[in-house]
Amino acid sequence: MEIISVIPRGYCQGVVRAIQIAKNTVRENPHVPVTMLGMIVHNQYVVHACQQLGIRFVEEAGRSRIDLLDDINEGIVIFTAHGVSDDVRQKALCKGLTAVDATCPDVIKSHELVRAHCADHGDVLYIGKQGHPEAEGTVSLSDRVHLITCCADIEKLNHLNHVLITNQTTLSLLDCQRIIDACLKKYPQAQIASEICPATRIRQQAVMHLKNIDLLIVVGDVRSNNSHQLKEIGLSSGIPEAVLIDSIQDLTIDMIKEKDRIAVTSGSSTPSELTKQVIDFLQEYAQDPHWKNPPQTAEVKI
Ligand code: SF4
């Protein structure tokens, strides 16, 4: 059995920055309640490590960032790496909260592009995932931003002006291009601004270039969009099997037995300790497949 550690993988700069901002905020404000508006990044281990530092989280499936703000009445609110709309910033200000912004610079760049286009009276076709906080934040910037989750959504829109096609930063390169092509069929004169961030792009390209792999293991949280995309890209690139696991606790011998070449990668919100545990175990198993089952995972520190 051969184990291929895909490079690059794991934390991107935006996630490292968001975690550092959260840690600094707690350290510099020891007597102030600090609340994160949503999951800091889509990884339960990182969330748990932040909770250990004293950060409270408000998060509920189906509730928008602006609604979640109702649950924060004092202290500091941290906006996550996914970014928020201007309405959320304004509401936090009106409530007297101190806002700390951990929005990823790549998301800020994407917001600036959308704002500028709307100010110029253009419409934006924004390709993204329904319910994802980044898409929610960007679509809320203006009534001129239209969320496109699939090709069918394009047909529902008419009479758009001076169209810009852009997208969420963590989409699959392949899916995004397919929807861009469909948008162009209806709006052939549209401008295109591909905003898949460099971290997402190079992690996906590294998976696309893998050869002769029997199994791709993606270490990442089930809520992490970029982790899902790595799995889907692997399958679309001809790898016969791909699995998304939270940590080594989800790895089973049935998944790996009789595989000759296993590649391991991880989402950009996955702590490197979790991926290392998987790789270390696979390498030991490759040496001697009879001697043990995967170990229990250790707690992650940030
Ligand atoms: S995946 Fe990209 S956009 Fe998201 S936090 Fe990382 S660098 Fe920023």
Short summary of the structure?
By secondary structure, the chain is of the alpha/beta class. Helix content is 40%, strand content 17%.
CATH class call of the largest domain: Alpha Beta
In helices, the fraction of residues equals: 40-55%
Bound molecules: iron/sulfur cluster
Strand-residue fraction?
A: 15-25%
One letter per element, helices H and strands E, the order comes to EHEHEHEHEHEHEHEHEHEHEHEH
Number of helices, where a helix is a run of at least 4 consecutive DSSP H or I residues: 12
CATH architecture of the largest domain: 3-Layer(aba) Sandwich
Q: How would you classify the helix and strand content by structural class?
A: alpha/beta
- Structural domains: how many: 3
Q: Average pLDDT value?
A: 95
The CATH superfamily of the largest domain bears the name: 4-hydroxy-3-methylbut-2-enyl diphosphate reductase, catalytic domain
Q: Could you give a short account of the major beta sheet? A: 4 strands, parallel
Describe the structure.
The chain is α/β, with parallel strands linked by helices and 302 residues long. It folds into three domains: 2-11 and 199-287, 4-hydroxy-3-methylbut-2-enyl diphosphate reductase, catalytic domain (Cobalt-precorrin-4 Transmethylase, domain 1); 13-104, 3-Layer(aba) Sandwich (Rossmann fold); 106-196, Cobalt-precorrin-4 Transmethylase, domain 1, CATH 3.40.1010.20. The protein is 40% helix and 17% strand. The chain contains twelve helices and twelve strands. The protein has helices at 13-28, 44-52, 65-68, 86-94, 105-119, 133-139, 151-155, 173-186, 198-208, 225-236, 253-256, 272-287, and strands at 2-5, 34-37, 56-58, 76-79, 98-101, 124-127, 145-148, 164-167, 191-193, 215-219, 241-245, 261-266. Strands 1-12-10-11 form a four-stranded parallel sheet, with helices on both faces. Strands 3-2-4-5 form a four-stranded parallel sheet, with helices on both faces. Helix 10 (225-236) links the parallel strand 10 and strand 11. The longest helix has 16 residues, at 13-28. It is flat. It starts with a strand and ends in a 15-residue tail after the last helix. The relative contact order is 0.16. Residues 12-15, 81, 104, 106-107, 169-170, 197, 199-200, 226, 268 line the site of iron/sulfur cluster.
